[in-house]
Design brief:
This protein is α+β, with helices and mostly antiparallel strands. It is built from 5 helices and 13 strands. A hairpin with a 3-residue loop joins strand 3 and strand 4. The longest helix has 15 residues. The model has no long low-confidence stretch (mean pLDDT 95).
């Protein structure tokens, strides 16, 4: 089974439509069974779409927020033609977008969708609002996450506590931007690992340098060296053949200020 995650920083940059098409082309070539995307944006002032107009396989997340014209998740679904997909608007971003999370299943129907509130507030106007989006596929749960920083006003450890309290039992994967550098001890990476989760990058028999952010970006303005902050975690060890940092200008075109992570495991849906 292949799993993919990317903080798409969507609708940003000089070529948002080309980046969307490049991402879709890469995914259609690699065919990961599960795709998790963070920073999924739609223009906040765009007209809403009729749910009947959404690409096939759409499964509602339970949000009362409409999907709007120009929604990155819907446009990616139109190109991928997944077996099933869902997305969750979470908050206002940059004063002009509605930002959220999306999951696409290219191989199996979605059996169930759940959402979890990770922040103390559930205010769509507050950029610190954090949620998790999960889908059950073949008896396992796959969660898309965009976590906060370790020392933020709502710290990583508190968000992690809320996440763990809400997760169903059984096989599970966590995919996303954790804003937790792997090399920094006694912070986010160590907390997740100490909670019984295994980093697929370290489990992989074959892996590359693992850097997913190169240089300063939003949230890491003073960063000059590469960071590994995007992960695919599994609850407990699992046989993992390889982990690749992709869409980085070397293994696929760069389409975001983050690079993607593609893990290939011995598990199957």
């Amino acid at each position: 089974m292949k799993l993919f995650t990317l903080n798409a920083h969507s609708l940003q940059g000089d070529e948002p439509r080309k980046n969307l098409e490049r991402l879709a082309a890469f995914l259609l070539e690699e065919r990961p069974e599960v795709v998790a995307i963070q920073e999924v944006n739609q223009p906040m002032d765009a007209p809403p779409l009729d749910p009947a107009e959404l690409p096939g396989g759409y499964v509602p997340s339970g949000s009362a927020r409409p999907t709007r014209e120009g929604c990155f998740a819907a446009e990616l679904a139109a190109l991928l033609a997944p077996r099933a997909w869902t997305w969750l608007p979470v908050k206002i971003s940059y004063g002009r977008y509605e930002e959220g999370l999306a999951l696409f299943s290219l191989a199996a129907p979605i059996e169930e969708v759940r959402t979890l509130l990770l922040s103390p507030c559930d205010d769509f106007q507050n950029w610190r609002t954090r949620k998790a989006l999960g889908v059950r596929l073949g008896g396992a749960w796959f969660w898309c996450l965009h976590m906060g920083w370790w020392d933020d006003e709502d710290p990583f450890a508190e968000q992690w506590k809320r996440l763990e309290a809400g997760l169903p039992q059984g096989p599970a994967w966590l995919l996303g931007d954790f804003n937790a550098p792997a090399h920094v001890q006694n912070q986010g990476w160590d907390l997740v690992h100490a909670s019984g989760w295994e980093d697929s990058y370290l489990l992989a028999k074959e892996r590359d340098g693992g850097i997913t952010v190169q240089g300063p970006i939003d949230g890491w303005k003073d960063q000059r060296e590469g960071l590994r902050i995007d992960y695919i975690w599994h609850r407990g060890p699992v046989e993992t053949a390889r982990s690749r940092t992709v869409l980085n200008g070397k293994d696929g075109p760069a389409v975001s200020d983050h690079f993607g992570v593609l893990a290939e495991t011995e598990e199957s849906l």
